[in-house]
Structure formats: structure tokens, C-alpha cells
Design brief:
Pathway: Cell wall biogenesis; lipoteichoic acid biosynthesis. By secondary structure, the chain is mainly alpha-helical. It is about 50% helix and about 0% strand.
């Protein structure tokens, strides 16, 4: 399974929202993510992809869309 599909499934499982048609929408503005949801998502991303997401990388504007989350995971896997 590719990273994008996995991220979409994680968000659907955690927040019961299918973001596949809104990959460039701000997930905070759309009501999908909030501060607590971000913590849950980070834990799941770290576990699922065996990565460590530094707190300094978790600015709202850095990980606020599905596509940015996918790109962030890819960058951390190749770091």
C-alpha cells in the first residue's frame, strides 16, 4: 500500500472522514484536525511508518493538508 492510501485510511479510521477528495484542503479549517487530533495522528504516523516527527516540524501550516502530510512522511522516511 502506498503512503497516500495509508494516510487517507489512517485519517478515516481516526476521525471518520474520507479526505481522498480533499487532499489540498486545510484539515483544521475543515474540522478534521484539532490540536488533540494532531497528537493522535502523529502517534499513528510514527508507528505506521516507523518515523520520528520532530515537534519543530509540526507547525500547523506544515502538516495541514493530506498532501503535506504525505510529503512530510516521505521526507522523514528518506532522512
Amino acid at each position: 500500500m502506498d503512503i497516500q492510501t495509508t494516510v487517507i485510511q489512517l485519517i478515516d479510521t481516526l476521525f471518520m472522514v474520507d479526505i481522498s477528495d480533499m487532499m489540498d484542503e486545510d484539515l483544521f479549517d475543515a474540522g478534521v484536525l484539532d490540536s488533540m487530533g494532531t497528537v493522535e495522528l502523529v502517534i499513528e504516523l510514527e508507528t505506521t511508518f516507523n518515523i520520528k516527527i520532530p515537534v519543530s516540524d509540526m507547525g500547523r501550516d506544515d502538516w495541514n493538508t493530506g498532501n503535506k502530510i504525505v510529503e512530510g512522511v516521505k521526507e522523514l522516511q528518506h532522512a
